[in-house]
Write a structure and sequence with these properties.
Layout lengths: L1 H18 L5 E5 L14 H9 L2 E7 L14 E2 L2 H13 L2 E7 L2 H9 L5 E3 L12 E3 L4 E3 L1 E6 L14 E5 L5 H7 L4 E5 L2 H10 L4 E5 H11 L4 E6 L5 E3 L1 E4 L3 H12 L3 H9 L18 H9 L2 E6 L8 E2 L5 E2 H14 L2 E6 L3 H10 L4 E7 L14 E3 L1 E5 L5 H5 L4 E5 L5 H7 L4 E5 L2 H10 L4 E5 H10 L6 E4 L6 E7 L4 H13 L2 H12 L9 H22 L2 H37 L2 H34 L5 H26 L1 H6 L7 E3 L1 H10 L2 H7 L2 E7 L5 E4 L1 H17 L5 E10 L4 E10 L6 H4 L21 H11 L3 E7 L3 E13 L21 E4 L3 H14 L3 E4 L2 H10 L4 E5 L7 H11 L4 E6 L4 H9 L4 E4 L4 H9 L16 H8 L3 H27 L3 H18 L2 H7 L12 H27 L1
Parallel strand pairs: 1-3, 2-4, 2-5, 9-10, 9-11, 15-18, 22-23, 22-24, 28-30, 34-35, 34-36, 36-37, 37-38
Antiparallel strand pairs: 1-4, 5-14, 6-14, 7-13, 8-11, 8-12, 16-17, 19-26, 20-26, 21-24, 21-25, 27-29, 29-33, 30-31, 31-33, 32-33
Pfam families: HATPase_c (PF02518), HisKA (PF00512), Hpt (PF01627), Response_reg (PF00072), SBP_bac_3 (PF00497)
Main location: membrane
GO molecular function: ATP binding; histidine phosphotransfer kinase activity; phosphorelay sensor kinase activity
Amino acid sequence: MLERLFIFLMVIFTIGLSTGVSSARQVELKSNYNTSVQNISLNREETNWLAHKKTLVVGTWLPEVSPIVYQNSGEYYRGVNADYLALMQKNLNLKIIIKQYDNEQEALAALANNDVDTLITQLSRRQDVGGNLLRTSVLLTTWPTLVTSLKNTMLPLTTNHQVSVACVRDCPFLDVIQGAFPEAKVSFYDDEYQAMASVVNGDNQYYIGNNITSSHCISRYFSQSLVITHYFDKQEQYNYFVVNEDQPVLRNILDGFITSISNEIHMQVMQNWLNRGNLAYLNAPIPFTTQEKAWLKKKHVIRILINPDYPPYTLVDRSGELRGILGDLLNIIHLQTGLDFEPILANSKSEQTKQISGEQWDMYPTITLTHQNPHNSTFSDPLMNVAFVMITSHEETADSLLERPIRIALPAGHVLESELKQRYPQATWVNADTSSVAMVMVKEGSADAAIATELSARFMVDHYYQKNMHFFRLPDMPGASVSFAISSHEPMLKSVMDKALQAIPPREILQMTEKWSKISNTQVDLWSRYSKQFYQLGIFALLLIAISLIWGISLFREVKKRKLSQRLLEEQLHLKEALSQELENEKNKAIEATKAKSRFLASMSHELRTPVSSIVGFVELLSSSELSPAQRKEAIALTGATAQSLLGLIGKILDLDKIESGKYQVVPQWTDLSQLIELQCHSFDALARQKGITLACVSQLPANERVFVDQQALRQILTNLVGNALKFTEQGSIHVTARLTPDGENHGTLTIAISDTGCGISEEEQAGLFHRYAQGRCGRQQTGSGLGLFICKELVTLMGGTLELMSVPLQGTTFTITLPVETARQSIVPDGDAPGTLLPLPCLSILIADDNPTNRLLLKRQLNAIGYNVDEACDGEEAEAKLAKKSYDLLITDVNMPKKDGFDLAASLRRQQPNLQIWGLTASALPQSRDRCLQNGMNLCLFKPVSIQTLTHELSKIETGYSSPCSIRHLKFNVLTENTGGDRALMNEILETFREATLNDIQAAEKAVLQDEPQLFLRALHRLHGSAQILGITALQNLCEPFESRRPDDLPLAVRQEALQKIIAVMREIEIEIDSLISH
């Protein structure tokens, strides 16, 4: 006991001693920043001081914030401060030693004891450093920064409504939050990452921090989800050096170093740590003249005339704040000059003209031609260049469109009005108030085209008219730019604005443009248009929450949601960071990206054109009346097979990146290779006949031999190679041969050769033919993208084979595919899940839900053809209402619907009706789509387009439904639907009439048998046969048809009795089906 007490006292004593000892750590200065030596002006005393002082000890203290100083750098001192100290070390020819202390008190004590020569402070608003210390000029300045989700860029910058704001603990900007958001609910987090992640998760609407740490965190982790929306000019923070009062020479040297740092160097230092939000150019003041400085002190509010409906240049949020590119630009100019800008809204051109004539304004943005008045004193320097485009509802070229007499909507007072009217006199010019109105006129058909700036057109098309509008640049138009028109009553404003604009780097304006190009279309809808609906929705939501939720449940869901979101965020963090870096790199190469996009679209066109041409050829053949029924059936089958191949081909083309990155997966399966190759060759028969070319398919494969290959990949390879052979062969023939060389018991080498008598390929072209975008010319213009052979080569390589080329100019070309394959002689049993293994169809009551009428009608007709009658619903709410009134065995629902989508519908129904079969339909073939369907309670996920074969196969696997009374085998819904137009009452009447007529005919047949009257028996069966033909009842037709050609004298009584018994048995089954259909 005494020993334990002694040890305890020793520990307490040791801890007590340790608290009074300064724990300084020497860390190594680490910086990758390198620049030329700056010219620092020093006097003789300062030069002599440096000559005797070879080492400068700089103190700092914890905690630090990234990227000012990285705390997790271990023994190294890294970050923005480290880059500036490295620059100082090189410029002053000093060795700098860093000592790091646990807190500010220890650091100040070390300075007082001369353990360090100077301290570099942390970011703060403190100006007073104490009577015995001297401070230098400011090294860094930061501004409070407002951050929101990229999905909510148009949230108001100030509001009296309740909002949620995130910040770090000990946040220095609480006064800023109180001023902008008086009713804000503030949540505190341990670090910037957690605070910003809460905005990404939707737990908070805003984050506030300084611009350097905020921009750094966004650049590293949230570049695709968060955006800076505003900088506040209050509570700026600074850092600087402090020295003892007996060291004025050192203070002057440090001051000289700080003032020698140019804006360019400030920007370079920050660019090592930030890729956006870099306000380092504001650290050095703008060189205003004495008159300009005096004017700035007197002038505080600039009235700016704004058209609020000109995105993305100008937007106005629900609080009346100016947003968009110009809103961000004026925010920066406010930080530079202290000027406040008051927007004056002019919603139309006439209203703007009236405001301008009234002279109740100081400036307004406008577009001017570059060659007009470049030094006009009433216009500021250009903000950005603009190009003009023509917008149409159809994709056309400029030459084909402008040669015709068309109606063009032109905004009133457009800068190109005289130029356009002079150049295109054949056009009819329609006046429009704004560019937005002009685009509406094109959509509604009152104009054929509209004129707008390229940036506005791209924004409006991306957000409102993705499928309805196209645009192209107007050829040979004069250059133009956006400038500010300055009122003649404010001559000093022009020089101030020019200097402020010149100080803003072009990169900053480019980032503003990119930011406002990314916002979602739901954010740019004017509040005034939809405020009533939003208020109604808000009141309803508040009432629902007040009635249905209590605090405990709300808290539980919130915690659960945060944990789930944080886990998902951590899992995807690395991927987002890599993607963000890649996107940033692509952004700096805009011209190359545009070219790559064009090449990609061209490659898709090439790959799709070949199978499409086959389908077109078959359609032309089908439209001809010269085909026999067998030939027509074969053409239809080949057209369907080619269309299915085309569907798979689209997926493969979109997987090109997977092929190049090694993520493509080969999926081999047992294949009847002879049938596959023959079918692919036949798909080109129509095209070959059109060109007069012989297309021969020669299979030297053993009978009943199966090979283990990727069918879709092999189809795509054959489609490309045979299609190329047809394209470059004008006369002669094309031969496709296949042979299998055994290599052991169950292995072999598959060789497929495609030979043509075309123009051939020169040796020079052969060397690069398998590269991306390489194309053979063959004495003609290039056609296609040059991507087909590249894809073929990659696919063959992935399957472990080789693709070789042999060609002689003017004689022909042979491509040879060699693949190692597994072989099997036995019959391969198809996969049980593959469509084709048909079981007896169960009787089911089916409901389909789809908001697209065409898709709904197609699915209904497919199910009718199989033998099912279905009910329909146009959205999730209607489907739920029908399910509440009537029992169904199967619900087939589209996953994307208004009001209530398929996922929500399935989730709610699964709890209410656990036995209900629910199938989801989606056009997205991603694995995540299937997983999401199953997670929401669906039994099956089908990918569009869905074939009748797939539907039949899946329906056959469902157990007999509990809502349908019987199985329908004889009656065919498609025939009934065609005969009645879908009218259920008429369908019931036809069924009743059929039953009554057939019963009379059977009674007549029975009477004829009893009276031994063969002639009357044949008449009764003839009437039965006709009725069965009308309704397509195959079983009854097959029983009656043999008697159509029989003679009465050659009809034994036993034959008549046997046939009558079979007919009566079939009619009993049909009567049960009729009763079921009428009552169902």
